[in-house]
Amino acid sequence: MRNYIIKRILIAFVILFLVAFIIYTLMRSMPSSFVEAIARERANLPGSRSYTEWLQQLNQIYGLDSGIIKGFFGWLGKVVQGDFGDSWVYNVPVTEVFKETIWYSFVLGSVAFLFEIIIAIPLGILAARKQYSKTDYAVTVVALIGISLPVFFFATILKLVFSINLGWFDLYGTVGRYYEQLNGWQQFLDLAKHYVLPVFTIVMISIGGLMRYTRTNMLEVLNSDYIRTARAKGLTERRVINYHGFRNTLIPIVTIIGGSIPGLFAGALVTETLFGITGIGKTAFDAMRSGDIPFSMFYLLFLAALTLLGTLVADILYAVVDPRVRVN
Amino acid sequence: MKKDKKNIKMEEYENKNEPTMALDDEQRVKILSPGRLVLKRFIRNKLAITGSIFILGMFLFSFVGGWLMPYEEDQIFTEYVDMSKVFGGVSINNEYIFVTSDGKEFPMVARAQFVLAANKEQSIFDSQDIEYSLQKLADELYIVYKNNEVAVAQTVVKDIVVTVTDTTLDESFSSAFSTAISKGEQTFEYGGRTYITIQDKKSYKAYEQIPDAVATKNRYDYDSVDIKTSFEFAYAAELTMMAMMEEGITESSFSADGKEYTIVYEGDNAEIYTNENGQTILYSNVSRYIVDSIYEDVFLDIGFKNYVKDLIAQGVEGIQEFTYAGTNGEDRAYTIEVGSNDWIIRWIEDTFVILDFDAPSKAHPVGTDGNGMDILTRLMYGGRVSLILGFIVVIIETAIGIILGGIAGYFGKWVDNLIMRIVDTFNSIPSLPIIIILGFMMDQQRVEPLLRMVYLMFILAVLGWPGIARMVRGQILSLREQEFMIATEATGISVSKRIFKHLIPNVMPQLIVISTLSLGGVILTESVLSFLGLGVKFPFASWGNIINAVSDVHVMTNYLFVWIPAGFCILITVLGFNFIGDGLRDAFDPRMKR
């Protein structure tokens, strides 16, 4: 087991290295005029550094003056030491920006994820138990509609109905206008209120996947021999479903949930941008829009690392949770 | 009766079973080909059928609809609209108007000095080393003289020594001047002209008064731009009006510039008539009102001004309508309303406007967007873009996926390891941020919209193939262990044929399912990008970039017809593909059914 985990981690690092190389190469392959144009644009801002200084910083961090391979290892050396450079837009080290914004995204992601689990798993099981019933159809259709809904469209409808027509929530932002004047509990409530619509959006968009996954696995379990045996034994339907069925369904579900946890830090780029939540997704989108190469590079690498971590966790959990799985 | 019925029933029963069957009859067990079986299962699935109808409908809508639609994708609709536009205004003149005598100038500085002096009720002021005096005829009516110094007198003990500075004057002027000083008179006459004396301590100065300007708050309107008010005319008219006011008569006459004028003065509005070729013509209108048009090329005749002034004199309440015949003799409708300190005149004008955010109508069933384009047409063309783009991307990514997945699965060992690590790598590359960055980069480079679309397809395909490759590889991994593969090996079929003729066709069902599902995914991604303004760009329509209009909250709130239909188009199309994909999966894999 330990060897398996070590092997997987090593492979993950190799892949991360490759991803970093691809991202770096991509950045380097951008037309140089793009980088220069951005440096020039930045230099024209009031109170900014000069054009040459911008370029100098860029060269310094990304080794733009040397070849791709040499430049890549130079950059990697700095990254390993935690030096991602200064964000061009926010004018502080990239890691500072990250620290400030990541918790907004994490809270958004994890609250939504919690709701997803609470709603999707029972519904998925219900649909599987009553296969081909109206409930099953309804769950399937809702799940597929969730998968098919464009985020921006759903978010806009929510905004129209709840923010504009009903006036319950603010259109944008993480906190209300009088946030500073509230006491601790009220501040929490204010914050929570601003999270309602974004959480709702994310839950609706991503609930379908988990719901269908649960249903498929539950069906597979319910069709298996040991369930038939349990039934033949004369166990009550409740015990069959909750004890024999559900426990076995949990194996793939725990795996997929575990694998999703690193993704909670990734931030919902579109949702955050639409609702003005200053999480990492929106921050990264703004950074990308204004050509903030250091921050964009950091964000890309961060996401790649999260994806790898997610698969790693899922694979390890799969082996840990299900004793029948042989490691190799 | 009862018996009969029973007999008939029996007969029927026998008739039904007439074609007797034997066990070896091939009709007894209906065997369907695998393809037909899949089709049958697919058709039985309500959701799959709904999805197929959605997609068929979307295809008809986009391709046939776009072809039937009489409008172009980027056709801008415009129209002439009768709009009530500000035409002009009426205000009360509170500034002095200076009518100067011919060839004289009354500079701006002097005007300002005059106003100060008039307010302080001084009779003399100077400006730029020229001394002026003003004569008040009535309230807000002055004659301004330029004082020309002609002589200076000094009193020495009891004698008066006069120094004449104007050379045209002789000795007798000095004596007239000294007489005036000794008498203490402020003005004196000499040679038919009036001079004034001004004392400054022990010296006196004599000034010749030259009338320079009439300062009045009345405005003189004429029927032509060319007529300028002459000093003599204004002077005579003002004096006459003053006299008329004092005497309380409404009609009088005066002469100026060698012409005779008749004046009718009522209220605070005077009309001056002249006699030309035996006809009495309205020559000028004098009042405190300024009636002006905001259009530089429109000249308002006295008639119009009089009409408006009359309206105001009668009192305007709310918005009052009136018509007046213009120079071309056609009646035009105007409205007049009271403004803050003035009156506003509007007229109805044909205005050329872009039909933006036009509500749904017969000509535009879904209305028009912010650029004045027909939304229905754009939805159709947007559907073409989304569907074509989706299919091309999926075809490319399936091709890459089949080739790499097939090779990895068939060869296994280090080839598999290498390809799978590449798959893992591409899988970990965050696709949305990468596409966004590339989109911004293309923005900066101002890539052509069409070329941009090609790039977009390519990027989406390159980032989308790993899932397909992984699936193909997994399937082939298990398939290659089966007996038919050993048979192909034994018969010596070439490797490429073994992979692409024997293995891949066996993966076809899963491939079709995954392709259908990823079609929906690609369309969704494209719409997100277009919504963010980074995907399909104007002038090309896309459902995403139609919804982009909601970034303006005003549009989002007030023009639902702009973005709701596009959203439902995306939803229905993606849902359709997902239903079909789901239905196909069940149809191909009967063990799991749905």
From the structure above, extract its key features.
heterodimer; A: mainly alpha; MetI-like fold; 2 domains; 13 helices; B: 594 residues; alpha+beta; 3 domains; 8-stranded antiparallel sheet; 5-stranded antiparallel sheet; 16 helices; 18 strands; 49% helix; elongated
Main sheet: strands, sense, barrel of chain B:
8 strands, antiparallel
Query: What is the string of helix and strand elements of chain A?
Result: HHHHHHHHHHHHH
Name the chain pair with the biggest interface and residue counts per chain.
A-B, 56 and 43 residues
β-strand number of chain B: 18
Indicate the structural class of chain B. alpha+beta
* CATH architectural group of the largest domain in chain B: Orthogonal Bundle
- Low-confidence segments of chain B, given as residue ranges, are none
Distance between the termini of chain B: 52 Å
Q: Enumerate how many helices of chain A there are, as a single number.
A: 13
Q: Give the strand content of chain B.
A: 15-25%
Number of helices of chain B: 16
Question: How would you describe the oligomerization state of the chains in this entry?
Answer: heterodimer
What does this molecule look like?
- The complex is a heterodimer of chains A (328) and B (594).
- By secondary structure, chain A is mainly alpha-helical.
- Chain A has 2 domains: 79 residues; 234 residues, MetI-like (MetI-like fold), CATH 1.10.3720.
- Chain A contains 13 helices and no strands.
- In chain A, helix 7 packs parallel to helix 11.
- The longest helix of chain A has 39 residues.
- Chain B has 594 residues and is α+β, with helices and mostly antiparallel strands.
- Chain B folds into 3 domains: 250 residues, MetI-like fold (Orthogonal Bundle); 119 residues, no CATH class; 141 residues, no CATH class.
- Helices cover 49% and strands 25% of the residues of chain B.
- In chain B, strand 3 and strand 4 form a beta hairpin.
- In chain B, helix 8 runs antiparallel to helix 13 and helix 10 packs antiparallel against helix 11.
- Chain B is elongated, with a radius of gyration of 49 Å.
- The relative contact order of chain B is 0.11.
- Classes of the chains: A mainly alpha (328), B alpha+beta (594).
- At the A-B interface, helix 1, helix 2, helix 6, helix 7 and helix 8 of A face helix 9, helix 10, helix 13, helix 15 and helix 16 of B.
